[in-house]
Design brief:
Distance between the termini: 62 Å
Number of domains: 1
Number of strands: 6
Oligomer: single chain
CATH class: Alpha Beta
Strand content: 25-35%
CATH architecture: Roll
Shape: globular
Largest sheet: 6 strands, mixed
Number of helices: 4
Radius of gyration: 17 Å
CATH topology: Nuclear Transport Factor 2, Chain: A
Structural class: alpha+beta
């Protein structure tokens, strides 16, 4: 029983390392405008949710958005600062939250879900947000409300 628990612990640690590598590769390929690598890290039915309320993209729609950006050689750069990964008991699904830094937006947060397919972890959902400090939340949300009206 102890050996089995140790094996499970090592398997989860290995999964977390693999997931960490996938997320690091995601950010590296985006920063280097490497569209092929970037999109190879997503599951075929993945969804990307951006910072704007209108940005809920299928993988094909997200590729269409990203293609001109990546073709220009620019990409986008988000540097991971802190990350927490949880792997399900079945070791087939995982979710994460990561704090990121962007020169353009400052502190941002990425959250998402990965699924294991054919022994590889793939991003099924990625959600990029801009965390709003509570001290200015009412000011920000009042501007959003005014814009929506």
């Amino acid at each position: 029983m102890v050996l089995l628990l140790l094996q499970i612990g090592y398997a989860y640690a290995d999964d977390k390392t693999q997931i960490d590598n996938v997320l690091n590769e995601l950010h590296d390929s985006a920063a280097n405008a490497d569209m092929n690598t970037y999109f190879s890290l997503y599951a075929d039915d993945a969804v990307f949710i951006g910072t704007d309320a209108s940005e809920i993209w299928s993988l094909d729609a997200f590729k269409a958005y990203a293609e001109p950006v990546f073709s220009s050689g620019k990409g986008w750069t988000y540097m991971p600062a802190k990350r927490h990964i949880t792997v399900s008991d079945s070791a087939q699904t995982a979710w994460f939250v990561e704090m990121l830094h962007s020169e353009t937006y400052g502190t941002t947060r990425g959250t998402g879900v990965l699924v294991k397919s054919d022994g590889r972890w793939k991003i099924a959902q990625y959600h990029l947000t801009i965390p709003i400090p509570n001290a200015i939340a009412k000011d920000v949300t009042s501007k959003i409300k005014a814009m929506e009206n």
